[in-house]
Amino acid sequence: MRAHDNVIDAEPVTASAVSRLWIPGAGLGFLGVLAFSFSLPANKLAVAGIDPLGVTVLRAAAAGVLAAGYLLAVRARLPRWSDLRDLGLSSLGVVIGFPLFSSLALTTSGSGHSAVILGLLPALTAVFAALVGGERLPRGFWLASGAGVLVLVGYLLVHQYLETGDLSVGIGDFWMLAAAASAGYGYAMGGRQAKVMGGARAISWSLVIVLPVSAPIAAVVFATQSFDFTTGVVIGMLYITVISQFLGFFAWYGGLARGGIARVGQLQQVQPLLTLAWAALILGEDFDPWTIVVGVAIAGLVWAAQRARFAAAPGVEAVVAAPDAAAAALRTEGQAIDVHAAH
To answer: In this protein, which residues make up the domain named EamA (predicted)?
Structure first.
């Protein structure tokens, strides 16, 4: 792991430059999607023996310790005061909001059912990328991504109805909607920071910032509550702590930084389908062969969204220009930015 992972050196904003940034961004983004695709089944395993608050604070504290170790190992500089706000807001979304709300949802809903609501996440990420990330998105992008959301949510709803005969809305659905909104906002804020400091550092500082709060609460919860540490619960907790909350973000934030928050975020349209596959393989939930057909259709719509004509938008300019300030500060210490650092 290089010290300045995913920080991109400045170059002119041209169509070829955007393409060169998108290709590695898509690769890193897909690795992140693959890592996150097992998060809901793993979380479902964890809440079988630990209550939602316990799952949230234990994973945040343990991942925070791992993040602190990483930052010490690479001798990371302290964030600038101007960066702390974005890092803190990102923490609210991906360290606190999504883990807590999704855990609450999974106490009453299956992981496959929850994937219905999570299908809205790519669209929410694109909206927040436009609102807080400053990315200008062309009409073709919105049409293709909107069609992808309609296909995905429509299929998931049909899948749910055929499996359960019920389309009623429960409290778990509202919790999952809150989780998706939290994640979309957290991705936008964290992805913006990853353009400056790299994906690994962005998630690590987000975890460390909340460590003074998460660690004491986790200690109290661990000391005062009883847990059922079955093999499944332990495996689930290990996965959502090490992969979902920490290492998966190395690739995901790196992809958002390189390829654009909204564009790479559309790769998550594939995530619910992968989640259904994991739920079938690990949790024994039914698997519909039509999932493959829908997956191919969604992949085509994601490709169409990426092929939409993009102008030299602020989001792209940020990717190629924002590191200048950070690079100047680092060079004062005699350090150089490695353009090709990868996870």
So the answer is: 25-153, 171-298
